[in-house]
Design goal:
The protein has helices spanning about 55-65, 80-95, 110-120, 140-150, 165-175, 195-205, 220-235, 250-260, 280-285, and strands at about 5-10, 15-20, 30-35, 40-45, 50, 70, 80, 100, 105, 125, 135, 155, 160-165, 180-185, 190, 210, 220, 240, 245, 265, 275. The strands form ten sheets. The protein has a three-stranded antiparallel sheet with strand order 3-4-5, with helices on one face. The protein is α+β, with helices and mostly antiparallel strands. It comes from Hirondellea gigas. Belongs to the krueppel C2H2-type zinc-finger protein family.
């Protein structure tokens, strides 16, 4: 292969075009191992990728050049591979060709269906190397790993809030917009988070499904039971990095840290009063009534 060689790729009109092959295909990167057919294996000069197909190498090259020739006609999405564009178009058409044989679930991607099928089998093949966490979804593992690395790639556009998950930022933004899309069917209560509404509904039903194994305590929320259990064990896992303070709950440690930092994030809209605790602001506002 020489620098004058060309590789043939298909455009989104399925028309073959010839594109000059760069130095990535020069003879210096051709490995001398062969298949039974006698074809030589071609190696990428930028990384360890190798293939017997010149077309495959042309597609691979785009991961280095950033070229994305396949464009969506509905939005700004661009793709390296035509198949990626086909899958993306289903977000516009709503097409979900992959159906679960166990239930009514449908998916736009085969890989998404494979993930779903594990909800029936209980299989959790992805295991964290740092802790005992297991999951059926590869992308969930990627998100979980960030809890160990501390990486928070999703940022709020209004304040300094950062999150591991994009969905967390979406929920956080409701603090700024005041949006509460989840409504109680029994009263006027509305919530920004679905799980909060589910917890609220238990105030109508009186249901307390989480029971302590040590005493008669019952809770509407699992985390409340977890906190309660620490009254039996004496465990205080949240430690202050400045002093000897320890807490049962993370929220208690967050409040405590403000005694060191002086942070007072809660502001009165009627005067200059600021406080470290939301409950103190609620009490303060009564003087303006």
């Amino acid at each position: 292969l020489t620098e004058d060689d060309t590789c043939t790729v298909n455009t989104d009109e399925d028309t073959a075009v010839n594109i000059p092959t760069p130095t990535i295909l020069t003879s210096s990167v051709v490995k001398k191992n062969t298949r039974s057919s006698g074809k030589q294996k071609i190696k990428c000069s930028e990384c360890d990728y190798e293939t017997f197909s010149k077309g495959n190498l042309c597609h691979h090259r785009r991961t280095h050049t950033g070229e994305k020739p396949f464009e969506c006609s509905e939005c700004n999405f661009k793709a390296i591979h035509k198949n990626s564009l086909i899958i993306h178009m289903r977000t516009h058409t709503g097409e979900k060709p992959f159906e679960c044989s166990k239930c009514d679930y449908k998916a736009a991607r085969k890989s998404t269906l494979n993930d779903h099928l594990r909800t029936h089998t209980g299989e959790k093949p992805f295991q964290c190397t740092k802790c005992n966490y297991k999951t059926s979804h590869k992308n969930r593992m990627s998100v979980h790993v960030r809890t160990h690395t501390g990486e928070k790639r999703f940022e709020c556009s209004v304040c300094n809030y950062k999150a591991v998950r994009k969905s967390s930022v979406i929920v956080h933004m409701r603090n700024h917009t005041g949006e509460k899309p989840f409504e109680c069917s029994d009263c006027n209560y509305t919530a920004a988070i679905k799980s909060t509404l589910i917890n609220h509904m238990q105030t109508h039903t009186g249901e307390k499904p989480f029971e302590c194994s040590e005493c008669e305590y019952k809770a509407t929320r699992k985390r409340h039971l977890m906190y309660h259990m620490q009254t039996h064990t004496g465990e205080k896992p949240f430690e202050c990095s400045v002093c000897d303070y320890k807490a049962v709950q993370k929220g208690s440690l967050v409040l405590h840290m403000r005694t060191h930092t002086g942070e007072k994030p809660f502001h009165c809209s009627q005067c200059n009063y600021t406080t470290a605790r939301k409950s103190h602001l609620v009490l303060h506002k009564r003087i303006h009534r």
